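Researcher: Please generate the 3D structure of the following complex. Treat every line as part of one assembly.
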Amino acid sequence: MSGILASMIDGLLIGAVYGLAAMGLSLIWGVMDVINLTHGAVIALGMFGMYLLFAAFPINAYLLLLPIIAAGLVLGLIIYWTSVHWVIDRPQLASLLSTFAVNMIIIGIGTAIWSTSPYNVNFVIRGITIGAYTFTGNHIAASVAAVLIALALELFLYRTRPGKAIRAVADNREAAELMGISSTMVLALAFAIGIALAAASGALVSTLFPFTILSGAGYQMKSFVVTVLAGLGKPLGALVAGILLGLLEGAVTPFIAVSWIPLIEFGLFVVVLVAFPKGLFARATA
Amino acid sequence: MIFRHPVFWLTLTFAGLMIAVPWRGNNVSMREDLILVAIAIILASNLNLMIGYTGYVNFGHIVFYGLGGYIGLYLATVRGWNLVLSALLAGLAVSLCALLFGLGILRLRGAYFALATIGILVAVQSFVSNFDPWGRSTGLYVSFDAYQPLGGARRALWITYFLVIGVMALSMILSLVIKTSKFGLGLFAIREDEDAAVVLGVNATVYKAIIYSVSAFLPAVAGTLMFYKNGMIDPSIAFEFMLSLEGIVMLMLGGKGTVVGAALGGGLYEKLRSFLLTSPKLSNFHLVIAGALLLLVVLFAPGGLIGWLYRLVPRSEKVIE
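Model: Done. Output below.
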């Protein structure tokens, strides 16, 4: 019994990182109705960013999140102006394809540089041992970092003028423009933040597991699941749904082979999509 | 009538050439190149029925090909049934699955549908990777004896090649028939404005489920033939997400919604990819080049090659579907 509990606690810790990854996807989707298919590639870039930075500056890896987030913001602006801005008012197929094209370019360059062999970040924080179970320090630190970043985003969206502008544009772009908000600037900012969140989550994952340039795809899939569970444009909901997904994984791992987990997750995903297209946390609206 | 349509005769000529040219010279390496082109055209043409005609993005189209390959290969090798019969049964079984899935997920629109198709792809792949009769993650192998009913491996490879070309021609003709039918007009109406189409009496639910199911049939048949020819199948090559996405690139490149465009894009992209993959300098960058190409097409030429032709020679729109 306590084995399941330990496995669930570990799942909960990793789930916070899933949640952070999904927040980036959810923010972009909610604000500009674009499904960002560069998400997985950016997560992978975050992993390799952490790998390179840690190799250059072997300090506490979690401090290196700050330059990674800054680089993510810049990368987000670049992606926005090359591939998203021009298709934002076209049918959704256009933005799906243009972001997917950028995804192919990033993965292609990454494969050429790092091939597809695994890398890892060799940074260990001592864990906490309770009875027969040890919770590794990295899992705890990564989940704390994920929650802190999530709370910072929430404060930004609800307490600052640019954050409120993002929410206004998400609600109704025309009305926001009539109130004097430059929607182009706001969209670019929201996209950059979404990309920075993806990069940060990738950097956190790189301190937990070995990774390849293709690892981002799996986390992108999980982000879709989490985003749909939470409903669109609800970043804090995405964090909660991510933790739920982690808990679910932790709870089933002791009973079945790991290879069955994708079937459970994506079966759940399709069922939730069809049964609750607005997410599990949607309020009943009149 | 379909027989009066120039594209019908164009398709037959094209298929005839693809059969005759490698066969006359007994050119095996050309045959292996062309079979990949044919598979690309089959996938792009059938994907076109969903994306180009109906306006629904299917990211998981490859699931039909892989599942068809598994069912057909299982029947043809483990059960020892006739290859053509196995392929047709695989097609029917996958179409039926698609109909059931479709009735569920086609209630979703736009991006939600696109995501659900990814969900189905991953779920099916995960199921097959754990399914004992199909060899879990190691997959199925075709023993050498399985080629005996077709007169040995050498003949069997040529026969499967001809069958794949046949499926390719059927895919293009199917696209043409649907495009020129009343059913096709209903699909276009759904693509342009689903709510308006429903008001005008198009039964959108039934139309979408039927086209989703139809777009599954020929890829599943082709999957059986192709994996039979390759002699093996495993979950990672049967359900390759990348190939699913490359199908979309092919379609955009040629011009979505057109019969010739889907075939042209499929053929050209496959040629480009094999050129890049075999070129020593560029093989590392084939994804980068394909991605840049896709980005340019999406941003600057959303109609693809055929859309560009229509703009250049407006009269061509009457002839080339």
